[in-house]
Design brief:
The chain is mainly alpha-helical and 130 residues long. It has a single domain, classed as Non-ribosomal Peptide Synthetase Peptidyl Carrier Protein, Chain A. It is built from 3 helices and 2 strands. Strands 1-2 form a two-stranded antiparallel sheet. A hairpin with a 2-residue loop joins strand 1 and strand 2.
Length: 130
């Protein structure tokens, strides 16, 4: 039992688990923002474009059973907006990483060139002392 507890403590204290927990919390808050965007901004605009149709109220009947598909359409719109925002964020992060990699590469090349020059100076000094 002690081993199990110590392994659990090690697992829970890893950076990845904490990052995941923070990601879930931020994701929940992000979902609230997207839900509000869709409900309070996009749906009224779509309703205005479609002549006042409220997607949430859309239904059809099958053998007397009322099926409300408007909420499903709303969920699809939420998903597409979230997917779009995440896609754009990933693209921006990748672009920033590429720029960072290029800068690091230039710095490494500059350092390598300086090291070569210093080695040449060292070797010249060694040869001149003989």
């Amino acid at each position: 039992m002690k081993k199990f507890v110590s392994e659990f403590k090690e697992f829970i204290s890893r950076g990845n688990v904490m990052d995941l927990a923070v990601g879930v919390i931020i994701g929940g808050a992000f979902k609230t923002i997207i839900d509000s965007l869709v409900k309070d901004i996009l749906m009224p605009l779509i309703g205005g474009i479609t002549g006042g149709v409220n997607l949430v109220d859309l239904t059809f009947s099958v053998r007397g059973i009322k099926v409300g598909y408007g909420l499903f359409v709303n969920a699809i719109i939420n998903f597409l907006i979230i997917a779009l925002v995440i896609f754009v964020m990933i693209k921006l992060l990748a672009k920033m990483k590429r720029k960072k990699d290029v800068v690091e590469e230039v710095v490494v090349e500059a350092v390598a060139e300086e090291v070569l020059l210093l080695r040449e100076i060292r070797d010249t000094l060694k040869n001149s002392e003989k």
